[in-house]
Description:
The protein has 328 residues and is of the alpha/beta class. The protein has one domain (6-327): 3-Layer(aba) Sandwich (Rossmann fold). It has twelve helices and nine strands. Helix 2 (99-114) packs across helix 3. Residues 313-325 have low confidence and may be disordered.
Amino acid sequence: MESSLLQKTTHQIQYNISSSELYLKEMDSTSDMAQYLLRIYTPKQHRPGGYPVLVYTHGGGWVLNHIDVYDSFCRKMSEKGFVVVSVGYRKAPENVFPACLNDLLNALTWVGKNLRDEKYNANLNQLTVSGDSAGGHITSHALVRLLMADQEIVKKEQIPKIHQQALFYPALHYYPANRTKFESYKLFGDFGFVLDSPVLEKFWRYLLGTQVSDEEAAANPYFSVMSALDTRDPDARAKVYSKLPGGFVITAEYDILRDEAAEFARVVTEASNGTSTLKHFRTPKVVHGFAQFPSDDMANNFAALIKSFFVSSTPSTTTEQQTTTQQS
Length: 328
């Protein structure tokens, strides 16, 4: 659906995986050339100084969905005053990890090189990365990759500073490594709503492929940041978490991923020693996937939360009440 308020353009992006040390080696790939889609939503009304930028990576168990499925979400967010970049990354099982991660890293390079063009009317000094479920996983692990990489490489790739992360029920801990680690695993593993233990495990297996063991996967901070950092000493763990940007994580009350996302928000906030906050909001009486088709109220509240970060590091009480979520 075309909008009188927005300009929507779709780009087919091709890049060479071996062109930068930022990209992780794709062991199962038969070619160094990769291809994915980007869709840009730009408000038509000019705004002095430009609109804040939201880079969104969609969910779907790393296997399902497409940027078309999230068109409504991205249009609504752009109509609330954002330049939205929707990332159509390569999917498993045809493209196993780290294909999806490399695609988002390349998309951030594209953002840094192209959104400075006046035609996009974008303000890269207000850049938020966001995603839901598998997209939240890709987003958070791209941040880990960027902070652990040689910063000269990141600079060379022209990736702009990321100011905020805004995640919906992200997958952050490799489930097959410890199926009882979190209470929500036990509550919703056998009879989960939308997402239960067999489905979650199958999605992780599709992403991992057959070349990597569970032990290797759980120890890889670019694949499963929480299980990987659990094995490190407290100082090394805090050093990674403390560098992650603030923002917020939104979870669903009835979701197997609920508690790992809440724990991620807690450890990032604690590691920062007050320099940044990753807030957690639990949304009551909803299940995994609720953000995929947002109501107007939900889009308004999500946009308000993102924008409040750039006004103040602590959103106002009014904004928090409007989210109709419970903060922990």
